[in-house]
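Sequence in, structure out. First:
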Amino acid sequence: MKKLFKLSLVALISLLFAGEMKAQLNESFTDATFPPTGWTSATYQGAGGNWLRSTTSFRTTPACAISNFQNPNGENILRTLQFTPITNDSLIFWFRQSFGTVYADTMKIMVSTTDTAKASFTTILTLADGVNYPPSGTYGRFAVSLGAYSGTPIYVAFTQRW
């Protein structure tokens, strides 16, 4: 069975200056090149899946990123380019699943302060199917503070595991 997860407005790293929100890193997958320049993706375990750009079911035009699986025990990782958060930065993203069956999979938001090697990432947020995923077919907004990494260059990884 194919399982699709969609991210829209991935990696809107927000900055608060005098009450005004600005984006340090904003990716809406406008460019047809995927992953975006400086980003990387990888598939570990399983087969038949990967992160892809999709122009259907996006939250914000023109596209979104999807994690696509056909076999269980797969793991897809989409990593941002390196950037340096400042005080009060947050990662804000929209997430949805495409069907209602609960498969007990997870979406983890992870951070690395060293490199993009899988083992270098630490989980800062876990979303679990059947626990805190938004209702099927509905985008949910999620935010996680990056304040602990203020002044430190980091990579962020979106890791979907089934």
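Second:
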Amino acid sequence: MIRKQNGFTLIETLVVVGLFTMTIGGAITLFMMMIKGSQKSDNLLRLNQTSVNILEIFNRELIAAQRINNCDAIAENIPEASKPTYLSFTNKDNQDFNFGCVFPDDGSNGDIIFGETHLLDPEYKFTLQSCSFSCYKNNSGIPVGVSFEFTLSSLENTKNNSTYVSLRRNNL
């Protein structure tokens, strides 16, 4: 006598559960990889955007500056270790400002400061790895340009930044 089966056998059920588990596991892995890639992309975008903003502020302020106050201290022929990590200038309204880099003694992340404004958002946890300013003079000793270089890093990305600003004739 042949018995008619109702339902599934244990083997069939185990195979279906196994395939379902592998499918869900693969989907979760793919989703997590997409999230991590999105976070990396977002971090790199913020790093680039922050760098561009800092360079734009520096360029805008220096192009309009009346004079560079510490050009001799940051001249191109002075060794990097001896140079201050700030640029002092007088703006178009005859106010003195500093544009500089701060490296705390406690080993925490550094910062780039313009006047009293901190330009690195602590929320993004960028690390300021290096920073330097150089002043270039013509043969008469008159400042003709200033360069600014800095390196920012985040968890997975590092960005080297530099700019050179040609000073106007009134930047004496």
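Remark: The radius of gyration is 29 Å.
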